[in-house]
Amino acid sequence: MRNVTIFYFSGTGNTAYVANQIGSAFSGKDSICQLVPMENVLLKRTGIDLENTDYVGIGFPVHAMDAPDIVYRFVDLLPTGNFKFFIFKTAGDPMLNGGSSYHLREKLRIKAWKCIYDSLFVMPSNVGNNPNPEMIKHLALIAVKHASKMVTDILTGKIVNEPKSNIVGLFRLFGKLESKGAKKNSDRWRVNEDCIHCGKCVSNCPTKNITSEGTKLVFGKTCIWCFRCCFHCPTQAIMMSKMFDKMRIKPYNIERILEEPAIRSDFFEHATPQHYVRFRKHFQELGLMD
Questions:
Q1: Which helix (H) or strand (E) element contains residue 189?
Q2: Residue whose C-alpha is closest to residue 127's, from 257, 231, 3, 240
Q3: 19 with 56, same domain?
Q4: Domain-located, residue 191
Q5: Do 7 and 82 sit in the same domain of this protein?
Q6: Hey, is 269 helix, strand or coil?
Q7: Are 152 and 186 in a shared domain?
């Protein structure tokens, strides 16, 4: 029996979905898998206990071609030791493999950790064009196959790491710029008259950037642009700027889409635009599509 602990950060929910699929795949292969949201550690709701752990998973959504700042802050708390770890990251496009995990792997290498697997899961986008339900369903099903393949590879000793990119420094620069921009603009969020004061955004914010003062929401200076608040707002009342409001997508529920038989599940098999052909090629290279 193997012991696996997966630490993950998820904004709108895609990485949480993938983390659960990976956890289920491990559980189905004679393993005990524990899932821990990173913010629970950072907010001291739980500690880090890696005693007798065989594998550690690190999962996150790609932010500006890199891991979000919250992931780096979490990694700083991890102990030094001879731990085997794997990375899974989510992005709305397979371009450039979602950016680089090099700097994150280096931070853990300094702690004597060994990366045995690093893989990108393409999931529905959470900004820009609204993904249609067929696309969401197919990506979610491909993620299930991807998780199963990844776990099988790990348990059979297959090591998969992305090569160091020649523009790895540029990836890290993009990440730092986004982190600074998010903090600088943290207090520019606002709510409109549709707000029902349910408190969901206050309790769900991973950095506690949102507080409630009576019937007024106050935004601080610790936002990381994960979009959890606006994506899960029941009335879509949280806003920032006109440009952001044009780019925001309508919330979707992966589980409900999967349960709807009328929604097709073969989107990338018949999608013809070149953009989606690139997606299909990526899945074929991973052995996830014929």
A1: none
A2: 231
A3: yes
A4: yes
A5: yes
A6: helix
A7: no
Indicate the pTM of the whole model: 0.92
87 and 11 co-located in one domain: yes
Q: Which of 168, 188, 221 is the last residue before a domain boundary?
A: 168
Task: Let me know: does 219 contact 186? Beta carbons within 8 Å.
Answer: yes
Distance from chain centroid for Cα 57: 12
CA gap 17, 15 in Å, rounded: 5
Residues written for the chain = 290
Q: How many CA atoms lie within 13 A of 69 on its CB side?
A: 18
**Domain boundaries, position 18:** 2-168
Number of domains in the chain: 2
Q: Give Dmax (Cα) for the chain.
A: 56
- CATH number of the domain that residue 203 is part of: 3.30.70.20
Instruction: Look at residue 257 and tell me if it is in a domain.
Output: no
Number of H helices, E strands in the chain: 12, 9
Give bridge partners of residue 118 from the DSSP assignment: 87
pLDDT tens, 125-181?
887 778 899 999 999 999 999 999 999 999 999 999 876 655 555 555 554 555 554
Q: Beta-strand (E) ranges in the chain? A: 2-8, 31-37, 55-61, 84-91, 114-122, 190-191, 210-213, 216-219, 238-239
Q: Which of 190, 191, 224, 179 is nearest to 39 (CA)?
A: 224
User: What is the residue whose two structure tokens read 């001879």?
Assistant: 82
Q: What was the pLDDT predicted at 136?
A: 96
Specify the pLDDT at position 126: 81
Structural domain includes residue 173: no
- Letter for the amino acid at 74? F
One domain for residues 196 and 80: no
Beta strand extents in 123-175 (DSSP E only): none
Query: How many Cβ atoms are within 10 Å of 92's Cβ, its own excluded?
Result: 20
Residue 104 · residue 75 · CB < 8 Å: yes
Q: Is residue 216 part of a domain?
A: yes
